[in-house]
UniProtKB/TrEMBL annotation:
Classification via InterPro entries: UCP028069
Signal peptide region: 1-25
Name of the protein in its database record: DUF3450 domain-containing protein
Pfam families: DUF3450
Keywords (A to Z) from UniProt: Signal
Keyword Signal tagged: yes
Organism: Paraglaciecola algarum
Amino acid sequence: MSKRNLIASAVLSAVALGSSTVVSADPLNELHKEEAKIHTAAAKSQEKINKLYEQSQELFVEYRGVVDETETLKVYNDYVATLVADQQRGIDSLQRQIDGIEGVKRGIVPLMFRMIDSLEKFIDLDIPINLEERKERVERLRDVMGNSNVTTSEQFRQVIEAYQVENQYGRSIRSYQGKLDYQGTEVTVDFFNLGRTALLALSLDQKNAWAWDNEARTWAPLGDEYLSSVIIAVRMASGTLTPNLLKLPITAAE
């Protein structure tokens, strides 16, 4: 080959080799770029996965809280339902009682009138302890029974209270001042009652004494042998002397 041809061949070979190197480098760069993109995409995907995981954990914790709260509320609701059922039973019971009040009133009002009548008869037949006060109490009861502003329960309470007062008269030892009618003469005296066992009277000058005869419904004068005992009895009942044994006229039970 001529020298000129050799140079040309060498130049062509160099150009060809250089072109081959450039062509070979482009796919590698593209590969690196794609790999970089893949890594970037993978990193972003992992970041999304991490965020989703965190969100899922938060949702799970929230879910567990809701489940626990639901269980708590269910237990509480069951408890409240029990209370409501018990209250309803109480309401039903009260309603039945309310429905029966009218029936009770229809039965108790006549009973109270009979009790007042019986109390009045008893006072008339009993020894005259605080007679005026006791009769006034009966009249007040009759007024109460005719007062529409007083409830039936209050009326019944006052009737029972009157009976309790009468009961106290039979268990007390009392002395009080008042007046008695002896043979048409009104005398101011100190009364003494030993329950319902004895009712005695002592004149204020302490010179005369009487005993109530319930069978004869009159005052009977006492002999001098009882005068000092009656004086002591009045003082004992008024609290000026200490209690002691006394000789008093007592009517024996038959």
